[in-house]
Amino acid sequence: MENYLKNSIIFADGLDHPECVALHPDGSVWAGGEGGQIYKISEDGTQINEVANTGGFILGIAFNPTGDWLIICDLNKHCLWKLDIHSYELIKFSEGADEHKYNIPNYAVFDDAGNCYVSESGAFREISGKILKYDTQGNGSVWHNGPFNFANGLALNHTQDYIFVVSSWLPGVEKVAISPDGSAGERSVYCTLPKTVPDGIAFDLEGNLLVSCYTPNRIFKIASDQTATVLVDDWEAHTLSNPTNVAFGGPDNDQLFVSNLGRWHILKIEYGQKGMPLASHKRS
């Protein structure tokens, strides 16, 4: 096993236990804090600005396809927020859909058409997770009723005919087919990772799925044949510490940025392979 920890540096320090990380097409790095902070970090990591605060606890964040606004999952406020990245105006986006009220809105991902999928974890030690979906007008529905065993990170595959969802207490990753009419199709287990708590996921351009684990302090690489290898391991938990979300960025989109809920920094790993562009990067 080659441990990519030696290829990593602390990119930005002094954040409030960041759960999430997202890369804007302009090169800026965005993250959230456990006190409701939304951080904008310069491309070189030297400037950290708190541009908004929800007063809650920030879980996943994602940019819409045009990169004009950021959707924010808030644990304590049980809702989604919409942040205009130019004016920093913060408005409540949704508290749920189809008479379902969010308990733990955890992560969001946009498809190329501008639809947004959001994982609802449900509750700890209860198998009650769901996936909600919002159209470009903000109209929401329960897209897949699950139940998932704590639905967490989400990622669309390259052709966007499958959505991959972390089920933290499975523990592992499942996938759900997206039918031509946009409805949820067949659901199956993609991989299991015993004695872990997986959290975030991201695809590289070769179709490998990177899975960050809240515990142990590891990032796994799941090949397209569904075999798992350890990409990064940090038993000391000082550099990689309760890694939650992962996102690709950098000038060549081959650097992996990792949020560390157990500490105060964003980690940057020289991965060496390009990440799969998200919807917002395809439009840039």
Characterise this structure.
By secondary structure, this protein is an all-beta fold. The chain has a single domain, classed as TolB, C-terminal domain (Neuraminidase, 6 Propeller). 1% of the residues lie in helices and 52% in strands. It contains one helix and 26 strands. The strands form seven sheets. The chain has a four-stranded antiparallel sheet, with no helix packed on it. The chain has a four-stranded antiparallel sheet with strand order 2-3-4-5, with no helix packed on it. It has a four-stranded antiparallel sheet with strand order 6-7-8-9, with no helix packed on it. Strand 14 and strand 15 form a beta hairpin. The protein is globular, with a radius of gyration of 17 Å. The mean pLDDT is 97.
Please provide a brief summary of the model.
With 284 residues, this protein is an all-beta fold. The chain is 1% helix and 52% strand.
